[in-house]
Amino acid sequence: MAFLSGLLSISLLLLLTGFIFHLPYLLHFPHDAGIAAACMFIMIGCMHVLTPRKLTYMIEPWLPYALQLVILSGIGEIILGAGLLFPATQWYAAWGLTILLILMFPANIYVAVKQLPAPGGLPAKPWYTWSRLAFQPVYIAWIWLSL
Predict the structure, then answer these.
(1) pLDDT at site 38
(2) Alpha carbon separation from 75 to 45, 47, 55, 85, 146 (Å, rounded)
(3) Are the C-beta atoms of 110 and 59 separated by less than 8 Å?
(4) What phi-psi label fits residue 72: left (phi over 0), alpha (psi between -120 and 50 degrees) or beta?
(5) Cβ 146 vs Cβ 30: under 8 Å
(6) CA 28 to chain centre
(7) pLDDT at position 121, please?
(8) Mean pLDDT for the chain overall
(9) How far apart are CA 127 and CA 112, in angstroms?
(10) What is the distance between the alpha carbons of residues 81 and 94, in angstroms, rounded to a whole number?
(11) How far apart are CA 82 and CA 97, in angstroms?
């Protein structure tokens, strides 16, 4: 839900900026939504790369190289998030992020089933960890609607 809050906040801030300063470039919500998605994926990717040990608990124990998987997913989020900013790479970045979100979905299921705390110190309450699963399709839809 924090990710969705970031998407909405950044998008609305860009839209408001476009309105206040009469910037037609920022008066198109799908465009602002794409910039917001890029910002959020880059930010989350940086968190994965800079503090990977804080996220390895989300990976099921049977998977090897948990630390490397977290770092790799972070690098993917950064590169693909940046790809959303350029018309020539948006479509490829959207597909890459869609695949990445699908591949990361089992980690969110694992967190919910094991009642582990959500990343960033968010609550480990079942209502929260299970509700996070519903937002993965929302993020995928957001990416595609922003193109």
Answers:
(1) 98
(2) 6, 10, 14, 16, 22
(3) yes
(4) alpha
(5) yes
(6) 21
(7) 72
(8) 94
(9) 9
(10) 8
(11) 11
SS (H, E, C) the chain: CHHHHHHHHHHHHHHHHHHHCCCHHHCCHHHHHHHHHHHHHHHHHHHHHHCHHHCHHHCCCCCCCHHHHHHHHHHHHHHHHHHCCCCCCHHHHHHHHHHHHHHHHHHHHHHHHCCCCEHHHECCCHHHHHHHHHHHHHHHHHHHHCC
Q: List the beta bridge partners of residue 118.
A: 122
Token representation of residue 130: 């299970």
Q: By the 8 A CB rule, do 120 and 2 touch? A: yes
Distance CA 5, CA 85 (A): 20
First to last CA, the chain: 22
Q: Is the pLDDT of residue 1 over 80?
A: no
pLDDT exceeds 80 at position 128: yes
